[in-house]
Amino acid sequence: MTHLEKIQKAKAKLMLEHPYFGTIASSLKLEQNNELLTFLSDGEALRYNSEYIDRLDVAEVEFVMANGAMHAVLKHQDRSAGRTQWLWQTATDYVVNSMLVNNGMQLPEYANYEYKFNGMYAEEVYQMLRDEILDALFG
Questions:
Q1: Which residues contact 109 (CB under 8 A, 6 or more apart)?
Q2: pTM value?
Q3: Are the CB atoms for 32 and 46 separated by under 8 Å?
């Protein structure tokens, strides 16, 4: 099954099992970008590495699509407020992925997830990550 077929099947499964997320995921603009290691969503577009998607099973692609939907729902792109963009994206992924794992979705390889971020807001995770980086750099 090709990456495009997997994406279509994952969207269909989301529509049946989680119609709210399926509807949102279906409205995301899909952009193949093999410069990425995995996937990235800003709530409007879902950018993905086709080789990565090819290696995943449909349940994991469903997770990827739900991740894009959650970024849209939580309006993370509107809440960055001058923060360092790559770190904000990482923090929002930890939050979204934690929610998806807690709802029984299958976490794909290389997705940002750590149990310690369960139940936290992106702003809290961002601050923790930032503090960890600064502590590592400056002790």
A1: 55, 56, 60
A2: 0.92
A3: no
Q: pLDDT tens track of the chain, all 139 residues?
A: 899 999 999 999 999 998 988 898 989 999 999 999 999 998 889 999 999 999 999 999 999 999 999 998 888 788 888 899 999 999 999 999 999 999 999 999 999 999 999 999 999 999 999 999 999 999 7
Q: Measured between alpha carbons, how far is residue 96 from residues 16, 24, 47, 63 in Å?
A: 21, 15, 16, 10
Alpha helix (H) ranges present in 1-139?
3-17, 19-27, 50-55, 58-74, 85-102, 122-138
Q: In the structure encoding, which two tokens stand for residue 109, read together? A: 């390889």
Pairwise CA distance, residues 61 & 9, whole Å: 9
* Residue 132 CB-density burial (10 A; 0-12 exposed, 13-18 middle, 19+ buried): exposed
Residue 48 backbone zone (phi > 0: left; psi -120 to 50: alpha; other: beta): beta
